[in-house]
Amino acid sequence: MSLARPTRTVEKATARRAGKFGAAATRTAIPAVTGSLYAARTKIQPQAVRGTFRRIKWALLAVTLVVYYALPFIRWDRGPGEPSQAVLLDLDRGRFHFFSIALWPQDVTYVMGLLILAALILFLMNAVAGRVWCGYLCPQTVWTDLFLAVERLIEGDRRERLKLDAAPWSMEKIALRTMKHSIWLLIAWWTGGAWVLYFADAPTLVVQLATFQAPAPAYVAILTLTATTYLLAGHMREQVCTYMCPWPRIQAALTDEHAYNILYRDARGEPRVSVKQAAALRAVGKPAGDCVDCFACVTACPAGIDIRDGLQMDCIQCGLCVDACDTVMGRLGRPAGLIGYDTEANRRSRAAGRGPVSRIVRPRTILYATLVAGIGGFMLYQLGARSFMGLSVLHDRNPLYVTLSDGSIRNGYTVRLSNKRPGERHYALAVEGLAGARVEVVGGAPGDLPVPSDATQEFRVLVFAAADARPDPSVQLTFHLTDASTGETARAQDTFKAPAP
Q: Which residue ranges does UniProt annotate as crossing the membrane (predicted)?
């Protein structure tokens, strides 16, 4: 199954569009050279449609935008001295807060696990329903839909926008374009502003930004994200999905004939003829397809492709062509579903006169689902069982040991304790593995080692072996740390060095 762009002649595509919509709707077709990596940028003005998939896209757009813009303002009580923002990437203190979960730089394995999970979920979604992520949840799709909605609200639907594009510059055109781009820039600016709120206390940073007292990096980040959002969602649109995003090319290697994609059911739609021609052909017993060649699916497509030419790399599987076609079929009194989510296996089965074939559960999807469940479950277990205290021990390199005047042997260690809990903690340190060993802490007591909240603390620890103990040249020691308030423990191992007998 090829996802390459189909070869079409400029003359054929131009003539078909000109015949249906007039010269104003004519646009440059895809180059006739097969394998072209880039097509000259042509402005696509998609037609507004109504239907099931459009309603799904509106609902997801509303949910994702509300979550993105509102999440920094949600509060979460973590106790005195702790940040009260529910989702916060605190770069100053080196922590990421997600409601009751806190991650430190040492927890980078969880970040790696989340990235692996995200990739596997994307693979699973592709194996089930193609580029469903691209069509409904990708940020580029969400913000492009929002920008298109603003454009339609100000300049009108497709026909009005085409007329406005072709019209000479006038005060009305300047006013409409100025209003549109101003709102686009406002949305882009608030998008960048919302992003920086995830890195500091949102209400405080909003006041600082408004009074020009925020850190310079915040303004730089907002300007950068404002520019990129405005360009990508307002101007580049489908070019991002086709040429900048690597996923269309990657997903071609991950899909198969049982994955659901937006397909045109050519066995039902061909040959394409007008309504009157179809009635005349059927009256004399000749075949006529349900497709009336109205190009509703083409004008509704945000990528500007003709789904009837087959599965294409540009298609983001958004389903708007399905809504457009179903609307036309409903007006003509014909059954819906001429274009819809289907599989290549189903298409071939129907062409051979057999029944439908559906294999959502197959080795590929089972493997992806198993990996997602396994990795996700393991991460949850590790997250629930992780320790909030840390212990590391480093033996002195020179000297390895010191023989004192009374015959006892001393080893020195640098012990680093970490406290990931709010509030100061007091730990007790003990040593196991050497009979009669005595522990001293320089400047402190082994039974009471204070460590501030969300910090690490180093202690100089001395371990003594009595003169009559006569330890081996290398003895394995276990340092045992206990939190006096919670009973939580941590262990670390090192060696005790002594002279050879």
A: 58-76, 108-129, 183-200, 212-233, 366-384
Strand partners, 403: 409
d(CA 101, CA 86): 9
CA-based end-to-end distance of the chain: 76
Q: Where are the beta strands (DSSP E) in 289-333?
A: none
E strand or H helix at 122: helix 108-129
Query: What residue numbers bound the domain in which 407 lies?
Result: 389-497
Q: Is residue 230 assigned to a domain?
A: yes
Q: Residue 493: enclosing H or E segment and its boundaries?
A: strand 489-497
User: Residue 113 pLDDT > 60, yes or no?
Assistant: yes
Buried (b) or exposed (e) across 23-52, using 16+ Cβ within 10 A? eebbbebbbeeeeeeebeeeebbbbebebe
Mean pLDDT to the nearest integer, 29-37: 44
Q: What is the pLDDT of residues 331-367, one digit of tens each?
A: 999 999 999 999 988 888 887 778 778 888 999 999 9
Distance separating alpha carbons of residues 84 and 78, to the nearest angstrom: 6
Look up residue 61 and give its two tokens: 């757009």
Amino acid (one-letter) located at 401:
Y
Domain C-terminal end among 242, 269, 285? 242
Closest CA to 131 of 297, 372, 319, 365: 319
Q: How far is the CA of 36 from the CAs of 192, 271, 500, in angstroms?
A: 35, 29, 76
Question: Which tens digits make up the pLDDT trace of 217-271?
Answer: 999 999 999 999 999 999 999 999 988 998 888 887 788 889 999 999 988 888 9
Pairing of strands 425-432, 449-451: antiparallel
Backbone angles phi, psi at 426, to 5 degrees: -120, 120
Question: Does residue 61 belong to any structural domain of this protein?
Answer: yes
Give helix then strand counts, H and E, for the chain. Answer: 17, 14
Please name the helix (run of DSSP H) or strand (run of DSSP E) that holds residue 419, with its range, or none.
strand 409-419
Q: Which two tokens stand for residue 188?
A: 């882009």
SS3 per residue for 12-48: HHHHHHHHHHCHHHCCCCCCCCCCCCCCCCCCCCCCC
Query: How many domains does the chain fold into?
Result: 2
Residue 363 lies in a domain: no
By DSSP bridging, strand 438-441 and strand 449-451 are: unpaired
Assess if residue 393 is contained within a domain: yes
Q: Does this model's pTM top 0.85?
A: no
Sheet containing strand 101-103, strands side by side: 87-90, 95-98, 101-103
Q: Select from 242, 268, 294 the last residue of a domain.
A: 242
